[in-house]
Design a protein that fits this description.
Blueprint: H1 3-18, E1 24-27, E2 30-33, E3 35-38, E4 41-53, E5 56-65, H2 72-77, E6 82-88, E7 92-93, H3 94-108, H4 111-129, E8 133-134, E9 139-145, E10 149-154, E11 157-163, H5 166-177, H6 186-190
Antiparallel strand pairs: 1-2, 3-4, 4-5, 5-6, 6-9, 7-8, 9-10, 10-11
Helix pairs in contact: 3-4, 3-5
Length: about 190
């Protein structure tokens, strides 16, 4: 090898060494890291996609699990921590977000199960009543931590209190992954389908 080839090889190696060890998936300008840490465990991006309404991009969402899963029953049965990460792509009033949340829950949860998680649904509604609107660029995350519960964060700041029932978290997941998901193209994206 000549001197120039060796120099180019060394420079390429140095550049690769400087790159971050994780990759990111981009959805409509929103970036989702390939891995995150939650409750001391590494979670993998199961899938990410776009929520649209009519022709408008509403938000990008990513689902993080301890291991990648491709079916709804597998996702709902995952024993470890989980996260749904949402990046808003337009402003949505808390009333509109709350209505969409309730519509998604009602469409994908039996009346019997809804009655069991009603106290947590009310708490969740109170969380969004405190926030007049979700603005473009806001980052919302819904975390499930075993033996603790569901915690909601807006731009890294805790919203409301823990909601302890895993049935509540699974009901929330079915908003996107249920038989009548809020966006039929987002469901397969969150399940990791290309």
């Amino acid at each position: 090898m000549n001197r120039r080839t060796i120099l180019h090889t060394l420079m390429a190696g140095a550049l690769l060494a400087c790159l971050p060890a994780f990759a990111a998936v981009e959805v409509a300008g929103a970036k989702f890291d390939d891995t995150i840490t939650l409750a001391g465990q590494q979670l993998k991006l199961n899938g990410a996609g776009l929520r649209t309404k009519v022709i408008f991009k509403v938000y990008a969402a990513g689902l993080y699990l301890t291991d990648k899963k491709t079916t709804v029953p597998e996702v709902l049965a995952v024993p470890g921590p989980r996260r749904v990460a949402i990046t808003m792509l337009r402003e949505v009033s808390s009333d509109d977000f709350g209505k969409a949340f309730m519509d998604g829950l009602n469409a994908n949860t039996s009346k019997e199960e809804l009655s069991k998680i009603l106290p947590q649904i009310k708490k969740f509604g109170e969380v969004f009543a405190q926030t007049p609107a979700l603005k473009k660029g806001d980052q919302l995350s819904l975390d499930w931590t075993p033996n603790e519960g569901t915690q909601c964060y807006l731009n890294g700041k805790k919203l409301g209190e823990l909601m302890p029932d895993q049935a509540f978290y699974n009901a929330v997941l079915r908003i996107w992954l249920g038989d009548k998901p809020v966006d039929s193209s987002l469901k397969p994206a969150l399940l990791g389908e290309k």
